[in-house]
Write a structure and sequence with these properties.
Length: 584
């Protein structure tokens, strides 16, 4: 059973080393960041000198309009705007480049993870890592971090310039930053916790909704709409409550800083006016100080907002790092082994999906080249698990699986799976055309004649010809536009095209009507010729004709041999045959 992967909110500080290590893996275009920051600082520098020009302009009003100063100020604004646009574009390019490479890395990682990871993690959570968390990191890199740098430069630059103008007035201004930071610290801590909770809740909601919508036919067939609506409402309400908390913390930051800044404005106006009256400060200098104060408001707000963004990104970074540390399949390691003409053996294999629930106990079997080996037994006995181990989705707890004298773990994984064909009772089909599904995962080009040939072998050519666009007909999401029997025959045609050395059939006709079953069975009989075939038995004819049958119950092999031998010597097998196949 699948369950949600929970990550508890961390109370530790933002791990800059972990964050930069993650970014470093994407090999970003650092020149865009450096040039973007440099041009951003230049634009900020231009903005810092504007109050100086304004001071001189105001002080010169008594002598008439100074058009050269006015033109100079306008020119500075225009140049600053152009440089700011260049800076923003470069930083945006940098962020998009990083998020593109990061998403590629996450996507590549996801597709190389072991099946056990997908057993435990909902697809919506993985989508959240791919989309939401990577976007959060991009925003920090391309927006919040550059804004922080330019804001710090703006604050320091303004304070230095004001210090040269009037140290007494500047002393008042120096109170602003530490006061704002002291007020924002507890808010940012709470925002961090809310940021973690939001990412968790989003991932969980995404996972729940993805699973429900992917099985919408089951929902409707079971009249479960109201039940799912209730579940969805609970998830949405949970997100709503977190969103309320997040909105509170986000909204508190700006008003708190604004209140501090407004208090400073009133104080500076009162103090500055008294200085102008005393004649110790010009009115131009006072206006210049007010302009610097307004310039400081934005950067001060940015500092507070950066702490909130940092808190949110911390959770995203942790989750992506955890994903990147998950063990993955190694497709290149091992030998190039041709399995043709070699015996497949499983020797004393134990297996458990988790420590508390062992599935297989001391299982052994042998499949000689070009023979049919059937596995029969009650449902839940471990037959499909044996197939999963052969496909190397999991590794045995103990024992070995060999092809010839080589352990299959020592065979190159890509080479091993390329030589296996698998048809199950509910063969998967991808959204796309029939042509796409036939050639899915195969290298090289295939002519229409070859595709029609394998369709004919699978008794699928007739219904494909009757489709509106033939090979280029869209099958729909999860193959909803083709019937179960048609889907099975397309899977068999794909297996013909793949031309596997080992064929694995997992009750491939179990869920079909009698007419479809007959056609699929004929196609399977053709496909099984001259191949080592492992089949989880459904039809009596498959068992009767098998070269050897292994009866699996409670995760063990309780008997093996030909059909006649087992009927004679294995009481449970005889009962199984009588009940399952109405054979007396």
């Amino acid at each position: 059973m699948r369950h949600s992967m929970r990550v508890e909110p961390s109370n530790t500080k933002f791990n800059f080393n972990s964050f930069f290590q993650l970014i470093k893996q994407t090999k970003p275009k650092y020149w865009q960041l450096y040039v973007g920051l440099a041009t951003g600082l230049i634009a900020t520098g231009f903005q810092l000198v504007v109050p100086q020009f304004a001071k001189n302009l105001i002080n010169s009003f008594s002598k008439g309009m100074n058009w050269s100063l006015i033109i100079g100020i306008i020119a500075i604004f225009i140049v600053s705007a152009i440089i700011s646009a260049v800076s923003g574009s470069l930083l945006g390019f940098f962020g998009e480049d990083v998020v593109q490479k990061l998403r590629n890395k996450i996507w590549n990682k996801l597709l190389r993870l072991r099946i056990s990871y997908f057993d435990e993690t909902k697809s919506g959570e993985m989508t959240s890592r791919l989309v939401n968390d990577s976007t959060q990191i991009k925003d920090l890199l391309s927006r919040s971090f550059p804004s922080l740098v330019t804001s710090l430069f703006s604050i320091v630059g303004a304070l230095v310039l004001m210090l040269f103008m009037d140290w007494r007035m500047t002393l008042i201004m120096f109170i602003a930053v530490p006061l704002v930071m002291a007020v924002m610290l507890p808010i940012s801590r709470q925002a961090r916790k809310v940021g973690h909770a939001r990412q968790d809740a989003l991932a969980e909601f995404s996972g729940e909704s993805d699973e429900t919508l992917s099985e919408v036919r089951l929902v409707k067939l079971s009249n479960a709409e109201e039940f799912e609506i209730g579940k969805g409402k609970d998830e949405v309400d949970k997100l709503y409550r977190i969103g309320l908390r997040e909105a509170i913390y986000d909204s508190i930051a700006s008003p708190v800083m604004m209140a501090v800044m407004m208090g400073l404005i009133v104080g500076i106006l009162a103090y500055g006016t008294s200085r102008v009256v005393d004649g110790t400060m010009t009115i131009g200098a006072m206006f210049s100080f007010l302009m610097y104060l307004f310039q400081l408001m934005g950067p001060a707000a940015t500092l507070g907002q950066f702490m909130t963004t940092l808190a949110k990104t911390s959770g995203s970074t942790e989750r992506i790092q955890e994903l990147m540390l998950e063990p993955e399949e190694d497709f290149a390691k091992g030998e190039d082994v041709d399995v043709d003409g070699q015996t497949l053996t499983m020797d004393k294999v134990d297996f458990a999906y988790d420590k508390s629930n062992q599935i297989l106990f001391d299982v052994s079997f042998e499949a000689k080249p070009n023979t049919v080996v059937a596995f029969a037994g009650p449902s839940g006995g471990g037959k499909s698990t044996i197939f999963s181990l052969i496909e190397r989705y999991y590794q045995p707890k103990s024992g070995s699986i060999k092809i010839g004298d080589t352990d299959i773990e020592d065979v190159k994984l890509e080479k091993w799976r390329r030589q296996i064909g698998f048809v199950s009772q509910d063969s998967a089909i991808m959204a796309g055309t029939i042509r796409d599904n036939l050639t899915y995962g195969l290298e090289g080009e295939y002519s229409d004649d070859r595709l029609w040939e394998v369709l004919k072998l699978a008794y699928a050519d007739q219904f494909v010809k009757e489709m509106p666009e033939g090979l280029d007909t869209q099958v729909g999401t999860r193959g909803v536009k083709v019937s179960g029997g048609q889907r099975q025959r397309l899977a068999i045609a794909r297996a013909f095209l793949r031309d596997p050395k080992i064929l694995m059939l997992d009750e491939a006709t179990a869920s079909l009507d009698s007419e479809s079953e007959a056609m699929v069975q004929k196609a399977l009989e053709t496909l099984m010729k001259n191949r080592t075939t492992l089949v989880i038995a459904h039809r009596l004819s498959t068992i009767v004709d098998a070269d050897k049958i292994y009866f699996i119950e409670h995760g063990t092999v309780s008997g093996s041999g030909k059909h006649s031998e087992l009927v004679k010597n294995h009481e449970l097998y005889r009962e199984y045959v009588e009940t399952q196949f109405n054979q007396n």
